[in-house]
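Subject: Sanity check before I submit

Could someone independently write out the structure tokens for this chain? I want to compare against mine line by line before I put it in a report. The sequence has 298 residues.
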Amino acid sequence: MGSCDIQPTSTHNIGAIQMAAHSWGGIAVQKVRIKTLPGRSWHSLNNNQAVLSVVVDEHRGQCEARLNLSDRVISRPSGRQRPNGHISFIPAQVPVWGYSEDIDQVDEIRLILETAHVKAIMGDEFTPAPMQEPRLVFTDDSLQSLARLAFESEDKAAWSSLFGDGLVAAMISRFLDIDARPVRNPRRLGLPPRQLTAVTDFIRDNLAASIRLAQLSRLADLSPSQFGRAFKISTGTSPHLWHLQARIERAKLLLRDRRKTLAEIALDTGFSEQSHFNRAFRAATGASPGTWRRSLRG
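---
Independent answer below. Compare away.
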């Protein structure tokens, strides 16, 4: 797993750094919160692997990525039109600095993009060209929305590997699609009925398991990125949400058996904790599992 850890010798005027790390779809994902002190602050973003950095929130100021600390500040719109956050792509072993002046806090998602793992996710859609040159401080609404979801949804990822895998695949696909030429053989159609049946049967047979996007994409003989798009075209929803809805439907059946406790049903449908089960069931049905069970008496 690649690392973008910030070393004390490569920082200046940094108050505190909080970092949570995950591995989704084979990609190392880092959720970073940096609190700075008044004045000019910087830290190194050097890495032996390529890094896709998405700043999702800038508190009381602006930050940016610089090839040199002495570079002129990159101009961005001010006032109401100023975007909150930005994106930077840093190729492997290219020295880049995260720089700010009089900002309170920066929230950021970093994807450590090892080429082999990116190629495994993208399949024959992969092109290395976007990963060869630094691209600093740009914006893309779709990519930034996905990154904010990753930053805010750690709880969901804890009980659904498909959620994190799909989110990372979508982020990488979107980044590589920005300003890219149309790819050969994009395969954007839905799944053939036989493949769709194989995938949905596998999900139903493994509701309580931690299913990975790569497992499902292999059943369809597609890359994870291609599979995610094809599955959504065929079903109208993502693999993660389809899996979640299948869990909820199974839970409804199990709730009819009053010998089973809510904790047992949570485990039987793949939720590691009853609290996760309660939140997911309420979000899907508008009622808690207990309330839904009591309604069956009517």
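---
OP: Matches mine. For the report I'm noting this point. The chain has a mean pLDDT of 85.
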